């Protein structure tokens, strides 16, 4: 029943957007491009996280088409707890249903942890995320 309600809300929003309409295309240029961003960072993140026991990555099977975000779950640990420990270690993630409650329902979870990456993301930051998740597993192990 809730899935149907969410589908109706999403369809209504699609047919009648509540925002300001379509955005103008971005006309700027990137001047300081990180050569490891994009697919290389996404491949690294999905590979590193997939190697950690108990971590489930949501979405497509591989990094193709994923973009700059990776949503994941650490088995047996609520995403808010994951986020708190990562925050204490200086690793920023987002937790919750990310305005996509039907996606959470589809995967059978109340919430997800999401890491985001952009041009300035470094491999050291990816390593810090992986170490942080290992710390989460030790704390809640």
CATH class: Alpha Beta
Query: Number of domains in the coordinates?
Result: 1
The percentage of residues in β strands lies in 5-15%
Which fold name is given in CATH as the topology? Aspartate Aminotransferase, domain 1
Helix and strand pattern: HHEEHEHEH
Mean pLDDT: 79
Radius of gyration: 17 Å
Description:
This protein is of the alpha+beta class. It has a single domain, classed as Aspartate Aminotransferase, domain 1 (Alpha-Beta Complex), CATH 3.90.1150. The chain has helices spanning 2-15, 39-50, 79-88, 101-107, 123-140, and strands at 55-57, 69-74, 94-96, 112-116. The chain is globular and about 45 Å long.
Structural key phrases:
alpha+beta, globular, 141 residues, Aspartate Aminotransferase, domain 1, 12% strand, four-stranded antiparallel sheet
């Amino acid at each position: 029943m809730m899935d149907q309600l969410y589908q109706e809300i999403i369809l209504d929003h699609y047919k009648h957007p509540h925002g300001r309409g379509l955005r103008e295309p971005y006309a700027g240029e990137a001047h300081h491009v990180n050569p490891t961003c994009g697919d290389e960072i996404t491949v690294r993140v999905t590979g590193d996280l997939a190697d950690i026991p108990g971590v489930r990555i949501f979405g497509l099977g591989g990094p193709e088409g994923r973009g700059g975000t990776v949503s994941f779950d650490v088995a047996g640990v609520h995403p808010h707890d994951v986020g708190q420990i990562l925050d204490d270690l200086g690793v920023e993630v987002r937790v919750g249903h990310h305005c996509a409650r039907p996606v959470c329902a589809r995967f059978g979870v109340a919430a997800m942890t999401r890491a985001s990456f952009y041009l300035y993301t470094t491999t050291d930051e990816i390593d810090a995320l992986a170490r942080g998740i290992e710390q989460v597993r030790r704390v809640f192990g």
